[in-house]
Structures are given as C-alpha cells and as structure tokens.
Amino acid sequence: MGPFELPDFYLPYPARLNPHVESARAHTKEWAREMGMLDDPEIWEERRFDGMDYGLLCAYTHPECDAAELDLVTDWYVWVFYFDDHFLETFKRTRDVVGGQAYLDRLDLFMTDDPPEPVNAVERGLKDLWARTVPGMSRLWRERFTRTNHELMQESMWELFHIEDGQVSNPIEYIEERRKVGGAPWSACLVEHAVGVEVPERVVGSRPIRVLTETFADAVHLRNDLFSYQREVEEEGELSNCVLVVERFLGCDTQKAAEITNDLLTSRLHVFEHTTFTELPVLFAEYALPPHEQEAVLRYARGLQDWQSGGHEWHMRSNRYMNGGGRTGFHVSPRHVMGPGGLRNHTHVPHRKVGHLPLPEIFMPFQARENPHLDEARRATLDYAEAMGFYTMVWDRDSHDGYDLALCAAGIDPDASLEELVLATDWLSWGTYGDDYLPVVFGRSRDFVGAKAFNRRLSEFMPLDLVVTAVAANPVERGLADLWLRTAGPMSPEGRAEFRAGVEAMTASWVWELANHIQNRVPDPVDYVEMRRKTFGSDMTMALARLAPGRTIPSEVWGSRPMTAMVAAANDYCCMLNDLFSYQKEIEYEGELHNMVLVVQTFFDCDLPRAAELVGSLVTARMRQFQKVAEFDLPALLDDMDADARLRASVADYVAELGDWMAAILRWHRECRRYDEATLKGARWVPGPTGLGTAGTRIGTLLGRTAS
C-alpha cells in the first residue's frame, strides 16, 4: 500500500502519442547498451529499463517531432535519468561529497568542442549527445542549454548536502532549488530543439517567457514529487520532495501534504494558462514581433503544454513510480476551476474592513544600530521631496514626515556619512512615492497602456552618459533624474548599465501589479514571492552591492548558490515582514491584492489568523535559512575556493550589512506612523498599493555608499 492516495490531478489537455514510439524504444535501448548503461545491475538492468519506458515518455512529451528527433530527445532522457540513478548509487548512498563534486566538475568538460576521453557511461553518453545536438543551434541557445545542463548536474550536490545534514528545505527554498536539480529548464531547452524553433533573443529574458518556463518547471517537478514520494523518501532516504517539505512545514499528515502539493501544481498550471492568454499578446505588441517570431513563441508554449500532458501519462505507466488509481486523459473538476489559481483568485472583494492584524512573533537575531546624522537626513529628504513636487499630488509633507524614511535608511547604513545617508533616504522617498503614484494616477482609471508608457519613459532619465535630455513631466521623473545624476556619476559605464537594469526591473513590476488589479487577480504564491522581490528593488540593490567602492567579491561568489540563496532569504524576510505590518493599510484602505497574508488566505482558503500564522512561520524560516547560509554554506564555499583574507572580510562585511538592513526594517515598521490606523483614517491622500514594503526599503541597502 502506498503512503497516500494520488490526488485529483488537473488535466486540461489530453496527451498525444508520437507515431514513432516503437522505433524510439528500439533505438534508445540499443544506444543505452552501447553507452554501457545496462552493464551494472545495481543501477539499471534490461528488465527495469524496459519498464521505465523512456521511449514512451518522449513519444508522449514530444508528439509531433520526426523519428530522428524523437530518437535524439529520448537518448537525452535516458541519459539524464541514468545520471540521476548513477549519482544516487555512487555518491548519495555513500555520502561522498568530495567525490561527487569532482565527478560533476569533470562532466562540464563534455559540453565543449574538445572533450576528454570518457571513463564511464554518463560521460560517454554526454559526449555522444552533445556532438549530435548543438550543431545547427544558435550560440545563445547553446549557452542556455550549457547553463541548464550545468545547473542540473551541480544541483545534485544540493540534494546530497540536505541528506548529509538531515535538513528539509523551507517551501520557498525548495521551489527555487528544485527548478535547477529537477531539470525542467533543461527540458524546456530541449522543447525548443524538438519543435524546431528558438525563442527570439530579444524576448527570451522577458517576464512572460520566464514565467512560461518556470511554471512549466514547477508543474513538472511537483507532479514528479507526488509520483516519486514513495521511491525517493521511503526507499532512497531523499529529503528533496515537496510532499515531505509541506509535511514538515505545516505539521500535517502525508495525505494532506500530497493534496496541498497538488493544489500548488494546479495553481502553477493556471498561471501558465493565464500568462499565455493575457501576457503573450501584450509581449507581441510591445516588441512588435513579426508573425514568424510570434509563431516561434507559440510553438514553444505548445511544446511545453504537450510535455505537461504527456509527462503525466508516462508517470501513470512507468514502473519507476507509484501510480495506482490516478486519472489519465482529460480531467477538469469543479475544484480545479474554482480552487487555487482558478476563479477563487479573482473573487477578492477590495476594501473589506479587516481591522488591525495581530502580529505573530517575529524572529530577529540582529540589533538595529543608530546613525548620528539621522535628524539632518530627516529634514533634508522632506526638502528634497518638496523640490521634486511630491507634495503636489499623492503625498503631503505631514504624511511624508510620519513615514520617517530617514530612520529606515539610518538603520540600514548606520556608518554612512551625512551625504551618503541623505542620498539613501532620498532614494527611499522616491521609490516609495513612485510606488504610491502609479496606482493612484493609472490604477483608478485602469489605464494599463498609460502605465506602460509611463514606465518606459523612466529609462530616459537614466542615461548612461549622464546627460539627461528628456523633460520631466511629473514628480517621479523629476526625482529620478535628480537621483540618477547624484548616484551614477562615480560608476563605470558597465556599472551604470547594471544599476539602470535593476531600477527598470523594479519599476516594471509596478505595471505587473496594476495588471493584476485590472483583472482583480490575487497572485499565485510562487509568482507573488518572486515578483515581490522585484517590486522590492532586489535587482537594483544587488547591482549596488556589487558596485560598492572597495568591495572585492568576484562574480563567481555573487552568482553562487549560497550567496543567491542568502540574499533571497533576506529579501523574502523583509517583504513578508512588511506584508504583516501593512495588512490593514493595504487590504482595508487601499484595496490591495499584493500582500502575502492575502495570498496565503486565498491559496489555503483559510481564516486570517491562520494565514498570519503561516506567513510568520515563513518569515522565521527565511531568517533561519539566512543564518545557516551565512554561518555554514558561505564559509564552506570560500574554503573550497581557497579564498584569501580580503575576500572573506568583504563577504563578512556584506553579510553584516544584510543583518543591519533586516534589523532596521523591523525597527522602522514598529516605530514609523505609515501603518497606524489613526494615520490611515486621517490621511489627506489615499496611499497607493504596496507602498514602502516594495520599492522603498531595499533601495537603501548600500546605495549611500556610491555617493563617495
């Protein structure tokens, strides 16, 4: 008997079967034998290989490609599953961390034009496949495919580390890391190859394409976690499975955890559909994509859809997983339509009277510090805002004074000079004002086109040559032009470009929020967390962190798994912290949809106290993860790099700054008047959605340092 009954899967599209399935089965079995994948019965033997039926998997997931392409794709899937099982037997079961890393590092050499001689079946298969796959594809596609291959292989160490220390991830960490180790982004690259298109270069990094790929990845992995729970958790001792993550985080039984995992799977599929039908048309118009490029994007989306449907059918038939009692074919139940991700997300009634939200206990291991220039910065930022015209619309001086953004900046950078602190405070004021301005000016009129045009114009006030020729037409543009010249001057041209891209990512996310308001759509939990970081200014402040004078952290550390995990944990901590404090302001007074408490309420269909409790648990989990990475993972990375004292000191300084930042944010929320009910009732202007918790606080993390 299995550990749980398979849940009610959302199957909106029936699977189709490629007519070349039998030839693919025969070809790939012979190929696997030739590569040596059937030589070790402890890993694979012929009967088990036949039962797993990878020819059927690829015939279902790629129903339209020709026989030669199906053979190639099937060989890739045989290779990736063999790699996973070979790594399990050779390194996971033996807990050989050092040997596992050396093995993975060597595999990168087989994704080059001059690979070494292979010494095992995994290397032999990768060398053969690489030579058969990359000819005919563009350089950019090769780079993406190389990166996803590398991440897929290297993130096997993430699973091994969790087994080694007996740790189960928190839900946010799990979803992000699972995308890499699960290999679905790798599968998405192969979808392009199989359907004979490449996503146009100029839109490959856009939000709609990113969301299509990521929702595809999440749905593939969550489905696999449901089918593979018994094999991975009960038989292999694996800890990287969403059902187990939910079990541990919520303290519920396995059946309930499986149902919640399936709800998240359903929600992610709805996001895929929503993006296809509402965001792709806007993307096509915005970039003026010609018909053949539109067709390439749509064929890619269709290929991802086919993979979802076919992958489910294969899971129901393969002997690799538990699969008794589940549905196949087309199946859409009322819960799938009305539940998480469906119509439930469009039924929120704005401006409900919710009253003050009793806060859960908030874990904070750091102490906020003081800056001696606080009072001077308070006065200076009020004068800056008045000069920029902030008090002519949306804000007045009294409300701005009550927000006390200088207190926030002073705690974020307690050692800043007066000039640095004033600059950081002014950025906080601008970001907060801009985020309040857009929904007031464009949200009430539902002017999505106007908001897009407004956002596009902002780039004109951040010229790389520091010569602003555009004429500011509103306080947001005027304030940005002023801050850009005060901030970007000391930067290199490359640094200015990176910084500007970060600002653009933040302001573009404001338009995403407006689109959700127009549709009255409460975001999906995963989409919300990831977009919340952008509304929070994370891309911009990461650029500032890298560009801070005297900082000696190389790109391989900034881009490493520990560093990105630590920064994401810190961002999420403060984003959700703000959502707790701002709940009444946003839900009752602003009619907001973008608040983690509301997102959790909507997903779980639970009451407010339970939603606040769950968000509080996530806040604590993210802080615990920050501490673990800072205390163990980052030092281990630096040890592996044989880092010198200067690099270690620079990393330690950055970790300390993040601690200052989180402590300052908590203190500011407790002491400012932005969220007081008395302030909200007496406000002259109705603040726009999300407020400081988005653009404001994160901007100042290191920004003041650029002034010198």
UniProtKB/TrEMBL annotation:
Per its UniProt record, what Pfam families does this chain match? Terpene_syn_C_2 (PF19086)
Q: Does the keyword Calcium apply?
A: no
Q: What is its EC number?
A: 4.2.3.-
Q: What class of enzyme is it?
A: lyase
Q: Which cofactor does it need?
A: Mg(2+)
Do you know which InterPro entries this protein is assigned to?
Isoprenoid_synthase_dom_sf, Terpene_cyclase-like_2
Alphabetical UniProt keywords = Lyase, Magnesium, Metal-binding
Which family would the database say this protein is a member of?
Answer: Belongs to the terpene synthase family.
Q: What is this protein called?
A: Terpene synthase
Species name for this entry?
Nonomuraea roseola
